[in-house]
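User: I'm new to structure prediction. If I give you an amino acid sequence, what do you actually give back? Let's try with this one:
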Amino acid sequence: KGKVIIPIIYDDAYEISGGKIKMILNGQPVYFDLSGKKIAGQEVVVTNPVYTEDVASKGAKIATAMAEKNDYVNKGNIKFNRKDYAGAVKDYDQELELNPKNVIVYSYRGLARQQLLDFTGAIKDFNKYIELNPQDANAYTNRGASKCSLKDYSGAILDFNKTIELDSTNSLAYLNRGKVKNILNENMSAIHDFNKILEFNPQYIEAYLGRGVSEYWLKDYMGAIQDFTKVIELDPNHGLAFSNRGQAAIMLGEKNKGCPDLKKALGLGHTPAADLIKQYCD
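Assistant: Good question. You get back a string of structure tokens that encode the predicted 3D arrangement of the chain. For your 282 residues, that looks like this:
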């Protein structure tokens, strides 16, 4: 039985520390340096009992052809993870020109366009992906996020609803829907979404933060303080949580508690706290 060295045929790819790229082949990690040279000791060998004595040459040709076919996707993924989103979009464009039925690339390109703040283009890509793969719950969340950025809040909520319909434990969809409801001043309904997250993920910082904001706008300042305190317990360097807790305390007439929180927030780099300190504490 021969052994075939498979070149670059991967499910995923991204850069990691130390100037290495980690690529996943059939669930197993393989490491390359940035020049594309395989790092010693990480060679992947696949045994194929179907071929006879010329298995290596035949397998190499097949593998190389597959690698060339998927090269734009791999290059695009690497660029995406290097935050070269414009470069990633160009590679995804090339892939879709060659292989328009490679459905997942529409989603990849949509995510890259989001990072470039091209939300209209991102929505077009997510529309195409959803048309071809309507059962992917995360696709609706991605599209909803772009709609939210364009202030299409009703459209965003419809997408987050669809995600939850397909995946009732999707924390990100509940979180995003709750945040949109905050924007629309639907704070009681937002609290329901944040509570839902905490039912199955009690360590979810953003859910406590979102619920605290909702409680603040409902003038439940004690409830807000409790939630912001929970955020700080989970992340002692969360500047926004200190700032929000400080404001809630000030609303209760407790400047002796609120002002130290605002100063702590500023010390942690949350610069909006400076104006609040001038307004309430100086």
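You can read the tokens as a compact description of the fold. Here is one thing that stands out. The radius of gyration is 25 Å.
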